[in-house]
């Protein structure tokens, strides 16, 4: 009989970090309540946006990602990227 070691520790660790994936940007890995690498101020300058795939990123991070890609795909799951919920107040139309 071999040692059947069930890894129970994993569960404890997982419960601690259960929402880590939701709290950090999948692109820059910075917390959503912090600054992205090229952001100046937390919050105001780095709105968080969600895709229809439920992955979230800083607006400027996903924008830069999309601009660098030929196709608009989520950097996490490679599904078609569409904004689900934008933190920006409507589209920039002529004022
Ligand atoms: Zn980011
Ligand atoms: Zn995704």
TrEMBL record:
Keywords: Cell cycle, Cell division, Metal-binding, Mitosis, Ubl conjugation pathway, Zinc, Zinc-finger. It comes from the Eukaryota. The keyword RNA-binding does not apply. It holds the Pfam family zf-ANAPC11. GO terms for molecular function: cullin family protein binding; ubiquitin protein ligase activity; zinc ion binding. InterPro entries: RING-box_E3_Ubiquitin_Ligase, RING-H2_APC11, Znf_RING, Znf_RING/FYVE/PHD. Residues 25-78 form the RING-type domain. Gene3D superfamilies: Zinc/RING finger domain, C3HC4 (zinc finger). GO terms for biological process: anaphase-promoting complex-dependent catabolic process; cell division. GO terms for cellular component: anaphase-promoting complex. This is Anaphase-promoting complex subunit 11. It comes from Chlorella variabilis.
């Amino acid at each position: 009989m071999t040692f059947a070691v069930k890894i129970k520790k994993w569960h404890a660790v997982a419960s601690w970090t259960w929402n880590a994936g939701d709290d950090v940007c999948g692109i820059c890995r910075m917390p959503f309540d912090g600054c992205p690498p090229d952001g100046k101020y937390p919050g105001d300058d780095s709105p968080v946006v969600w895709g229809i795939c439920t992955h979230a990123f800083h607006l400027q991070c996903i924008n830069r990602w999309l601009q660098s890609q030929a196709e608009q795909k989520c950097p996490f799951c490679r599904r078609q990227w569409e904004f689900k919920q934008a933190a920006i107040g409507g589209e920039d139309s002529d004022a």
